[in-house]
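User: Teach me something about this protein's shape.
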Amino acid sequence: MDPELLAWIIERRAELDELEEELAKELAKVRAERDELAVAERVLERVSEQLADERASAAPASGQVGGRAVMLISHRAPDVEENALPPDYQRISPSCDWPPDRSWPGRSARR
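Assistant: First, the predicted structure itself:
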């Protein structure tokens, strides 16, 4: 046997073994990331469905008062976000805010 050719074969096999090890590690990383993305996709779908359900249930309902069409707005509560209000109400809402540490004019502070 040719000693140079045998040395080349042994060297090449070592290189390929090293490359195989690196590729196996890279493949494991790719598979782990792909699994994480699949989980993230499922979470996103669930959250999107929940948000859609919440928005649908928080949508203002229409009604009639004195024969005129009006938009019914749910009572304000700590868990009701301002963005649940219609855009017109959101626009005027800041002008209706009153600091909690001050009383309304003509009224005493209640806590």
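Now, about its shape. The helical segments are 3-58, 87-96. The mean pLDDT is 81. If you'd like, I can walk through any region in more detail.
User: That's plenty for now, thanks!
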